[in-house]
Design a protein that fits this description.
Length: 586
């Protein structure tokens, strides 16, 4: 019930229209229920008193009622569809907006398939319920109430006798609903796991083919589907048992009316017209009551969907995403890591890390795999927060700078980039206030993309996730896109790993000379990417173990020299070749 009360929040803005809808439904229903009442008058009065004028009056009244009923029905349908669509649009858009604000950790802890399933299927179930089930439920309940009133008006005693059966009906509904709810919840979980499984498999289809994974994938699919089929059967058994019992109880109602009402007619305590009208109402009650039982099961299923959607709404959004703007100079002068410690679960990654990145310099972060380089970039991106210590931007704690403000000064390009299935213009203008990129052709030439990918590059789409481009071409677009936002600080995290040395050189020239990026941090395992680095920082187990210029570190023959010595003589960028020619490498 709490879930429905909470959901009422989405309906609240339209409650006035809801009231109007109720009135229209009432008119439509009452119109359909008056016939047996008039039948009683026809049998007892028209034929009893041989009154033809009364018969004609009844026929005209019935015609007018039928016309009114049709108009009310049409208006109710239109209004209902409008309200339910408004509710589902608000639900979907507010859920999407909320989810965009969730922290990255949430998306790392859930698979994409599960999230898509929740948004798509659960919202779909709620939409179906609101475009069918709820209106039907309201309609049927109104019909039941109207029928009960009419039966009471016809004969109170007979109604009381019949009504013994109704509480039994409620008991049947209550008896089955907890088990149905449990099974439906389990089915939804299994279905969303299946969606997660499918998303993962089709995103990695190349891997499955290369590893001959067909058999094991089919087996997993079989067992997942079998489990869902088993749960669906279980749910059907429970729903059918609940419906069967209800139908049996409902079928008893007209029999009870005949048994008791027939006796009253034989004792002249009731007219034949009243008994026939009462029997008609009792029979009419059969269908809406059965519908209510079925719809109740549907609403139990919908409540499961609503609960799962509210679980998403209850996820806390990332802190200080928008917030109040803080003042730090643009471009800023320095980003200082002060006593930063960070751990994944209990595994320490950075310990008492101290370093200041000064504006106007090009830094390189190098070190063995897993030494914490990307973690540093993630901290700077505000994707994760330090366990201890703080990062300061010109003395302002990064924690206090709203993420949306920070992203106007900072940009990162990593291997996890996103190429939109659209044109280059659309890719470049994504998230840019300056949505038209004027010198696109010039940019393409500078990053050596024009010749490689064809002249139609600026007008054609690249396919999903840039599937029609090579790895290096995608990386070039991702880097240029970050650069045209003109950040003060740009981090390139293995961003040129698939780009040849000559193009890499052009890209750095583009970033430094054309885009005038003030501060660059390159995270890399490739010597060729270090041609423009003023200062190299070598990380080992989350600590700086060496730092200095390329020339210093080569001369020192320490960690850096050991890690990169094999690359001194292989396909280097021009700037790196120049620098290496200045130092004695033995
Ligand atoms: N989400 C996570 N959960 C648990 N541990 C993680 C997570 N992300 C990274 N790690 C661990 O943190 C450590 C540092 O990872 P990080 O990505 O910062 O290393 P890196 O220096 O960038 O490595 P590489 O050069 O291989 O990219 C690694 O040991 C890694 O296993």
């Amino acid at each position: 019930m709490r879930i429905w009360l909470r959901f009422y929040g989405f309906f609240k803005p339209y409650q006035g229209y809801g009231l109007l809808l109720l009135v229209l439904l009432l008119i439509g229903n009452l119109g359909s229920l008056v016939t047996p009442f008039f039948l009683k008058i026809i049998i007892d009065k028209v034929f009893g008193e041989r009154n033809y004028d009364l018969l004609l009056n009844i026929i005209f009244t019935l015609t007018a009622i039928y016309i009114l009923r049709i108009i009310a029905g049409f208006l109710a349908d239109y209004l209902y569809t409008w309200i339910s669509n408004k509710i589902t649009v608000t639900l979907t858009t507010s859920l999407f907006a909320h989810m965009l604000k969730l922290p990255i950790q949430f998306f790392r802890s859930q698979s994409v398939g599960t999230i898509v399933y929740k948004i798509n299927n659960e919202v779909g179930q709620v939409r179906r319920a609101f475009t069918g089930t709820v209106i039907s439920m309201i309609n049927n309940i109104i019909t039941i109430i109207a029928l009960i009133v009419l039966m009471i008006v016809l004969d109170m005693k007979l109604f009381l006798v019949v009504s013994i059966l109704y509480p039994l009906l409620l008991m049947v509904m209550k008896l089955f609903s907890p088990s149905i709810k449990r099974v439906v919840e389990k089915t939804r979980r299994e279905e969303s796991d299946l969606m997660a499984f499918l998303t993962e498999r089709f995103s990695n289809i190349k891997f499955i083919k290369l590893f001959n994974g067909y058999r094991s994938e089919n087996q997993t699919m079989d067992s997942r589907i079998s489990e869902i089929v088993k749960l669906n059967l279980h749910s059907t058994v429970l729903s059918s048992a609940s419906n069967g019992l209800s139908v049996f109880l409902l079928a008893l109602i007209p029999l009870v009316v005949l048994a008791y009402g027939g006796k009253l007619v034989l004792q002249d305590a009731m007219t034949v017209g009243t008994l026939i009208a009462f029997l008609q109402y009792a029979n009419k009650l059969h269908e809406p009551l059965r519908n209510v039982v079925n719809l109740y099961v549907d609403l139990v299923k919908t409540s499961v969907s609503i609960k799962r959607l509210f679980e998403l709404f209850d996820e806390p959004p990332q802190q200080n995403l928008e917030g109040e703007l803080t003042m730090f100079s643009k471009p800023f002068n320095a980003v200082e890591f002060r006593n930063i410690s960070f751990a994944h679960a209990d595994k320490p990654i950075l310990q008492d890390f101290n370093f200041t990145f000064k504006a106007g310099k090009h830094y390189a972060l190098v070190g063995t795999s897993g030494s914490g380089k990307t973690t540093l970039a993630d901290l700077m991106s505000k994707i994760i927060e330090p366990k201890r210590g703080s990062i300061f931007v010109d003395g302002q704690d990064l924690k206090d700078i709203p993420m949306m403000q920070w992203m106007n000064s900072y940009s990162i390009c990593s291997q996890e980039y996103f190429i939109i299935n659209g044109t280059l213009q659309e890719n470049f203008s994504y998230g840019n206030d300056n949505s038209s990129i004027e010198n696109l052709t010039d940019i393409l030439q500078q990053i050596r993309l024009q010749d490689e990918a064809g002249t139609d590059l600026s007008v054609r789409s690249f396919g999903e996730r840039g599937s029609q481009l090579s790895g290096g071409q995608k990386q070039k677009i991702a880097i240029a896109r970050s650069a045209v936002r003109h950040p003060d600080l740009l981090v390139l995290d293995e961003a040129t790993s698939e780009i040849d040395a000559a193009s890499e050189e052009s890209i750095y020239r583009f970033l430094i000379d054309t885009c005038k990026i003030s501060t660059l941090i390159t995270i890399t395992h490739r010597l060729s990417a270090l041609g423009f680095a003023d200062e190299i920082i070598y990380l080992e187990n989350g600590r700086i173990v060496e730092q200095g210029s390329l020339e210093d570190l080569i001369a020192r023959k320490g960690y850096f020299f050991e890690l990169f010595k094999n690359q001194f003589n292989t396909g280097n960028s021009l700037s790196m070749k120049n620098r290496l020619s200045q130092v004695v490498v033995k």
